[in-house]
Amino acid sequence: MSEKPPRRPRYSGRNPRTFAEKYKEHDPTRYTADVEKVLASGKTPAGTHRPIMVREILEVLAVPPGATVVDCTLGYGGHATALLQAVQPGGRVIALDIDPLDLPRTEARLRALGFPAESLLVQRMNFAGLAPLLATAAPGGVAAILADLGVSSMQLDNPARGFTFKAEGPLDLRMNPERGQPASAWLGKVNATQLERALRENSDEPHAALLAPALLRAPLPTTTALAAVVRQTLGPGDAIEDSVRRVFQALRIAVNDEFGALDAFLRTLPQCLQPGGRVAILTFHSGEDRRVKQAFRAGQRDGLYAGIAPDPQRPSAAEVRANPRSSSAKLRWAIRAPGEVG
Fold first, then answer.
1. I need a labelling partner for 278 at 20 to 30 A (CA). Which of 31, 87, 102, 140 fits?
2. Portion of the chain with pLDDT greater than 70, in percent
3. How many domains does the chain have?
4. Is the dihedral of CA 47, 105, 222, 252 positive or negative?
5. Residue 238 falls inside a structural domain
6. 28, 19 contact by CB (below 8 A)
7. Per-residue pLDDT reduced to its tens digit, 160-198
């Protein structure tokens, strides 16, 4: 006797509300019409991610057929899919990501698209280590590099990953839950001065001095507990939810050492590009954008880059309407100067 298929999640009301209940959105191939309705409403289906500024990125990178390119942040694979199409025939996409949960699923989706197997190389690693990888995988440098520094919707929407305060989950915030310590443990090891500095430097939180001691008064094991302390400390007001978001951002950056990884990547970036090669970086807050802008300007001043974006590009109004999560994105680019790599 064959096993019965698992029953779909039960939920009250006409529509599913929680991440786990949205089983149709988790299976877009089977429930295409339902997923299209979610997309048309300007929302991102649960368990998926909508790539941002794809057209603008392809224009900036100008990837020729046969080229080798790098997607530093594979995520759901939306940008990588566009890059795979662009490098055919004969090209290759080297795709990196540190998330051990979503990386295998994304690679399986990309492999199922039918591109030649050799046109995709997937590596589970942080983009801070790109230069050593390319020393063997592409010794002469690559034609294009893309880094999307945003958090993927798969991570944001799943309460179990601890990135969202909209539903209760463990206060984790790690991109790679197999390494390092969750945010709840990190809070137990810092003092108020260190936390205040993290809130200021990582998210420009204006209430950092008030929030830091409040967040350390008692253990905060869950996302909702952290959000509640922020709200209780600051009191009612229209801008309180902005502070909640900034606190989560600051802790995420600290727990994952995001600025350290970005700085390491930017230092070795020129040697990863072949002469005339291009890089495009999507940032989503001032701390990231400031680092990218300064690194590109310094690289141009030192003769490493032949050209850089004079100003960041922003998503179109139509894209922001279709995908509100794109609203804070900024795209900067640089072109490697002629000369030897390294």
1. 102
2. 85
3. 2
4. negative
5. yes
6. no
7. 888 888 889 999 999 999 999 999 999 999 999 999 999
Reported confidence tier of residue 43, pLDDT bands at 50, 70, 90: very low
DSSP assignment of 235-271 equals: -S-TTHHHHHHHHHHHHHHHHHTHHHHHHHHHHHHHH
Residue where a domain terminates, one of 214, 235, 256: 256
Gap between the Cα atoms of 238 and 250, Å rounded: 20
What's the mean per-residue pLDDT of the chain? 88
Sign of CA dihedral 115, 116, 120, 122: positive
Asked if residue 113 lies in contact with residue 139, where contact means CB atoms within 8 angstroms, the answer is no
Residues 239 and 207 placed together within one structural domain of the fold:
yes
User: CA 66 to CA 63: how far, in whole Å?
Assistant: 9
Give the CATH number for residue 178: 1.10.150.170
> What are the percentages of helix, strand and coil residues in the chain, rounded to 5?
45, 15, 40
Cis peptide before 89 (omega within 30 of 0): yes
Triad 328, 148, 181: Cα angle to 5° = 95
pLDDT digits (tens, 9 = 90+) for 204-233: 999 999 999 999 999 999 999 999 999 999
**Quick one: three-class SS letters along 282-312?**
EECCHHHHHHHHHHHHHHHHCCCEEEECCCC
Task: Give φ, ψ of 114 to 5 degrees.
Answer: 95, 10
**Tokens at 30, concatenated:** 């089977």
